[in-house]
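User: Structure please.
Assistant: Input sequence and predicted structure:
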Amino acid sequence: MDVARGLAILAMVFYHFCWDLGEFGIMDSLTVNSGGWRLFAQFIGSSFLFISGLSFWLFWIYSKNQKRFLNRLGKLFAASILVTIGSFIAYGEYFIFFGILHLLAVCTLLALLLVRMPSVFLLVLSLFILFFTNYFSFEVCESRLCYWIGLYSGYIGTVDFYPFFPWAAPYIFGLAFGKAFYRYPHQCDENSDIQKGILENKSQYNFVFNVAKKGLLFLSSYALYIYLIHQPVFFGLIILALNFI
């Protein structure tokens, strides 16, 4: 799972770099925001949300450390506020008021209620959230305070938007997947056959694979911080490069 999160981070960094090139007119901005590129971006976002839902389930069955949970939740809310402030400075009225970090914070709180529900119920709920907005929209949600729900079909006016409907679906599906396939904590000590096999096979891994895996695990460990700093770094590097061309 950590390797998968690391790959998702790499994909996100690559897409955002291309998106930034579109912002500066180096690439066609319309191309980067449509077609296959748009599907690529949606796949990356869905991957993060799915992995986060699965991570919550693993945390729930293996740890349940209240202090660690509150610390993570606090970081998510703080990071969300930073994204909102930073995007307001950069884009003005088109600032990010409900991006993927805001959604993750809301889903993490919601997961406290959903984690005890059967996996079948969670699967049905995720499908409901995913497809509900295809058939319904409500003018009562036209206030910007309600945009985050995702049930308003009009113009939103933000550079990045992950409303609850339908984007909470991958998170809840990840939670359902975890409940279905990781039902009980499994432990193995150093003398177990599984642990011995792992230790014996470690020496067979080639150097490139080990380096790549460690790199992905590093990216996974610092995913939130990478998310927060990579865009300002890219903007700075592109501006610097343009000044020297």
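Residues 27 and 127 are 36 Å apart (CA to CA).
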